[in-house]
Amino acid sequence: MTVETARVAICWDSSYLWGLIAYRSFSCLGLDFDLIDSSDIRAGKLDGFDILFVPGGWASDKILALGGDGAPAIRRFVGEGGSYLGCCGGAGLALSHDSGLGLASFGRLPTSQRLPSFSGRIVLEHTVPDHPMWRGIEPGAAFHAWWPGQFALDGDPEVSVLARYGEALAGSFVADLPVGAPFDWRRWEEIYGINLDPERIAGEPAVIEFPYGGGRAILSYLHFETPWDQKGNLVMLNLIRYLSGGKEPALPCPAQGVKPVPERERGAVSELGPAAAAAREMERRAWDFVHFGKQNFLWFWRTSWLLQWRRGVKGIEYSALYGMLAELDRLTEKYEDRLGADFEEQISVLLGRVDEFLNGARTLLTLERWALAQGPLSPLKSDDENINAARERLFSRSKRCGGLYGEIMERADRLLLPLIRMESAEAGGA
User: Fold this and answer.
1) pLDDT digits over 257-274, tens only?
2) Between 3.40.50.880, 3.80.10.10, 1.10.540.10, 3.40.50.300, what CATH number should domain 7-243 receive?
3) What does DSSP assign to residue 106?
4) Residues linked to residue 173 through DSSP beta bridges, in sequence order
5) Where are the domains of the chain?
6) 264 — phi, psi (to 5°)?
7) How far apart are CA 118 and CA 173, in angstroms?
8) Using CA atoms, how far apart are residues 319 and 342, in angstroms rounded to an integer?
9) N or C: which terminus of the chain has fewer CB atoms within 10 Å of its end residue's CB?
């Protein structure tokens, strides 16, 4: 008897580090998936899938990538019976027409009313304890939230709150302050000028479900695909089964906790072709830059894929940059014999832009380290005009980070997607 498997489309656009994590997680969990981008969605390629999964990242970038025809295509897919599963930025993308797809009638709480800088493990309260997402999960289990938003629910009776935030666990952070330390949170809020007390998020909706036409959406500000999170990975499998109408993953793969890409022995640079040598050089320079920040006590490796940084300097951006370049290094070496002259030209251009960016970022970090020695430093605005000018050139004035950084990430993303598709097809994941 043939078992029908769940077919999942991962929306790749503007996900960067979170897209890589989703790719690794879904591969390890034995899911049958394709990586698609906005051009695929506009071309009608959602047909045949059960679920559209949208990873984290800036929702505003994702809606721009979808363009005028992409958003209606997603609404049509869900309205005709498909399922939408959005995680963090993917959850934000589904919200009201003011900022997203309009699958939901509501938006996010404004920054002034939410806890904007929480990251780490937090207990989830099972507000619908018999929901299939909790299969095999005991009450009181903790999961990972990485700088989550918060829903501004408008009382819509069709919205079901599946989970609410509970206790934030020790080992988590709010900005650069560790949860569990005997802080006077009110005093720190006055110093930093933002909400910091982890109690602020307790009881707020974390995972919600609602119908849209003939389909349904589940939005989560938790990252159930987080590497090494066995319980979170099990919830992800449960959600895939549920949203696909009970279909199974492609492989009988238990939720063992997705592991990071293992360390590998790298060939000598002299043995690499031009494209792979350029990718290796970018990874090396980015690694040296991360070490420079560690030497200056500005961050440390919190996990194998994520930095923990001091407030006032960029952190998730540098984590994502290194993660993208490391993956580009790995896959360019693996598939260089399939790559043409255009790829070699594009990666050479990227190397030059990365070199320019990292030189400027070292200067910026040096300025920021000096400023931090004088007192708290805002990540958005400084009294030092040299810092402001460097930030604007490298990242732009937007919180979502454009500038030279944005250009580099877009270039790296365009080079990575075909390589990851090659690997996925080779492994039978697509």
Assistant:
1) 444 444 445 555 658 899
2) 3.40.50.880
3) -
4) 119, 178
5) 7-243, 269-427
6) -135, 155
7) 6
8) 28
9) N
